[in-house]
Q: What sequence folds into this?
């Protein structure tokens, strides 16, 4: 299972996986699919962290919008 589940690391891993899978024999593609499933599992286990980051970003956006409207 990947140890770095930051959004940038996840995006990099998914890009790497997709580039490897294209044009591969079926058996190799299955191995890569297993890697992708491990990545998805890592994201799911860390979902509370990402949910908190999402809510913080929305709150920050809303606060900026309210400031702009008041000015």
A:
């Amino acid at each position: 299972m990947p140890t770095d589940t930051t959004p940038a690391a996840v995006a990099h891993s998914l890009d790497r996986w997709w580039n490897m899978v294209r044009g591969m024999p079926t058996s190799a593609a299955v191995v890569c699919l297993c890697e992708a499933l491990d990545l998805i599992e890592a994201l799911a286990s860390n979902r509370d962290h990402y949910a908190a980051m999402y809510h913080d970003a929305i709150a920050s956006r809303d606060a900026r919008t309210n400031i702009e409207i008041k000015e």
Remarks:
- The helical segments are 7-21, 26-45, 47-70.
- The chain has one domain: 7-70.
- The chain has a mean pLDDT of 70.
- Residues 7-70 form one domain.
